[in-house]
Write a structure and sequence with these properties.
With about 220 residues, this protein is mainly α. Helices cover about 75% and strands about 5% of the residues.
Length: about 220
């Protein structure tokens, strides 16, 4: 039988992981940021042990890595790693877009349209992080239309790994106050409305290739 103390301890560890994960995914802890156990425990108002366990979970999820004499740091990807990630994203998301567009229904199309409308509003307001979140919701609505939940789960895990870099890129982009960096979204939506899977796939791949090039530029000048 699991004691109440263990349940409470496990809950704190999970909560610590979720908070630390969000600090990484929203760009507060940038790639290369050193995660100090004692400082983080004070920040969260808990003991060090659940923080240590949360850090191990971050490492297991690829969001942090252990460095000699530094402890855990937020994962910092190389140009080669970004290229590898995007090769996989192109394979998976191209297929997800194709299947989703071919099988999407009116309700799912309505959700995509709502996300596109919301995206335009937050971009005009200059809210980069919220724009990236809505962008993910837009694509999720399309990909989930494929009916393959496992495919969507894998894609979302890849998003988490590159999210800090997408935030940096969007934040530094000269066009961050316009819709230029989301120019493919209305075209993907139109392809879904026409149930044109091949077009949706091609547009998705083109958007990923362009995003990859921008991220490579960011890393090479970092």
């Amino acid at each position: 039988m699991v004691s109440d103390m263990n349940i409470n301890h496990n809950t704190k560890s999970v909560q610590a992981f979720e908070i630390m994960r969000d600090l990484i995914l929203n760009g507060t802890w940038e790639p290369g940021f050193s995660i100090k156990i004692r400082e983080t425990a004070k920040l969260l108002g808990i003991s060090e042990m659940p923080v240590r366990e949360a850090v191990r979970t971050l490492v297991e999820n690829g969001l942090a890595v252990h460095r000699p004499h530094r402890g855990a740091v937020v994962s910092k990807l190389s140009v080669k790693e970004i290229q590898d990630f995007y090769r996989v994203r192109i394979l998976l998301e191209g297929e997800a877009a194709k299947l989703g567009a071919e099988q999407i229904n009116d309700k799912q199309l309505k959700v995509m349209k709502q996300h596109w409308t919301s995206l335009k509003k937050v971009v005009d307001a200059g809210n980069v992080i919220e724009a990236l979140n809505i962008d993910a919701d837009f694509l999720t609505a399309l990909y989930e239309s494929s009916g393959n939940r496992e495919l969507v789960n894998i894609i979302q895990s890849l998003w988490n790994r590159v999210q800090p870099y997408r935030i940096l890129w969007a934040s530094k982009s000269k066009e961050k106050s316009s819709l230029v960096i989301w120019k493919y979204k209305p075209m993907i939506l139109e392809a879904a409305e026409r149930k044109d899977g091949e077009l949706a796939k091609r547009l998705t791949i083109d958007s990923l290739l362009e995003a990859e090039k921008e991220l490579e530029k960011l890393l090479m000048h970092d």
